[in-house]
Amino acid sequence: MALFRIRFSAGLQYRAAAIAGISTQFAWGFMEILAFMAFYRSNPAAFPMEFSHLVSYIWVQQAFLALIMPWGVGGKVVETIVNGNISYELARPMSLYNRWFFETIADRVSRFILRCAPILIVALVVPEPFRMTLPPSLPQLGMFAAAILLTLCVVTAFCILDYISVFYTMSRFSGTIFVITADFFAGGYIPLPFFPEPLRKVVELSPFGAMQNLPLRIYSGDIAGMHAVRGIALQIFWLAVMVIIGKMLMKYSLKRVVAQGG
Amino acid sequence: MIRLSNINKTFRVAKRKSGFGNAVKALFSREYEKIRALQDVSFTINDGEMVGYIGPNGAGKSTTIKIMCGILTPDSGECDINGSNPWKQRLRHVRDIGVVFGQRSQLWWDVPVIDSFDLIRDIYKIDENLYRRNLDEMIALLDLSEILKTPTRSLSLGQRMRCEIAASLLHSPKILFLDEPTIGLDAVSKIAVRGFIKKINAEHKTTVILTTHDMQDIEALTERILLIGKGRILLDGSLTELLKRSSANKILVVDYNGNVPSLNEHMSLVEQKDGQISVTFDPVELSVSNAIAHISAQVEVLDVSVSGISAEQMVAALYEEYRI
Predict the structure, then answer these.
(1) Which chain A residue has its CA at the smallest distance from B211's CA?
(2) CA-CA distance, A181 to A185, in Å (whole number)?
């Protein structure tokens, strides 16, 4: 909790970075919608999602980006491994896994809070067909909230596996391809319904399917009812698996960790 | 009580020759070299002791400290610090120790120092009263009141080091590990830091283990020194004893007017500068007064000082003696 607070206040200091980030996200959001619109015009029948669902998918994705993206966080954590400051962290009466977990979440939440409001406001007032719709019902909104929180945890647990790999590679960018792949299969670039059939089924059951794919589609109503509940159960399952693997790997790695320098 | 017995640690370091061709080759097959960082290191330190841990760069000082802090796991050997094994019972062990790595920072870079302190309070779950008492003591002794609200990144090195030391003592640790605490500090900050460490050791009976390359730290602070070289403990004893043992020679420094004085057969030249000469001699063979007389007979003497060998020179001599 304390870690949360300090990470949070540090994160809030960077207003300029937040403004730059927001503008990028607007530009990205519009471009994506425009591109999909071109496809949609050419053949609406071949389109696997309703267009309004897709628009909501993209805006919610942009607004909640800081919570759900598998990349771009944890630079500070990785730095401590590479430059050896991890020594200090190990000299504290605290589980390193928990520390990383909460630090990463705090980092994400502080970024999210700075960025979500402007994007949501604009997305709700821009003219059709760019306008974001509200979720179809209150229970649907509730499920969305649960799913997005779980996504936050699943993605963070995934990021920690990436951090642990740095113990072995000592490079900040070693995990990048891994992480970008995750982003792709989580629906970060193209929503999963656009994936070819057998692949889509596999990915939806994989840990990647338990990331942003689920809350974004629940929001618009693309996934509803029992499907949504099953999806949330799957998220809980993958979260547990990744936390257990992460803690085990961490324990093993710390025995062999070599603090660099000094 | 700290007890280490037969601690060994080996690092594997990837090696390659310079040049692009070798870099490509190293992608496919690596050669590793084993470096024995510690070999059968054993010692015992009692509660409340202040020990200087010295040795040249790469001798294994930091490795030993890291093992004692639970950060590194040794390949073999036993270690017992106040009843816990640092690497097996890390969480329990680190609650009782404070650590300062002079070359690193434990403070959060972009928030005010006091926020870092509050975070440490929460991590160690320090009782609020104890925290206030410790904090007030640190503020008074280390003169922190002005800088507590400054973000760490805007502090000078000396200010930061004072904050680092304060941060490591907020939870009243029984043992304090200082790895090069005065590195890069100016004279005033060094003296402040030394004074503070001494006070903490005297008042709270905190065991202090200090590594440094600055022999004045050792002279000012520690009675006992441990010398490590190439991963082995070479010497364990009191500083005064070592000084006596290593050499009884005196150093005579004379400022003079006139031609360069000649030396007699008992003297040997240390340094010759414009208008100043330093010589060393064994007082058994040549008394101090005779030595001064010998020089003052030749030149007009402006100033004279006589001293024993310094800790710095003694350590240099020890490194030489053990070829480390």
Answers:
(1) A262
(2) 6
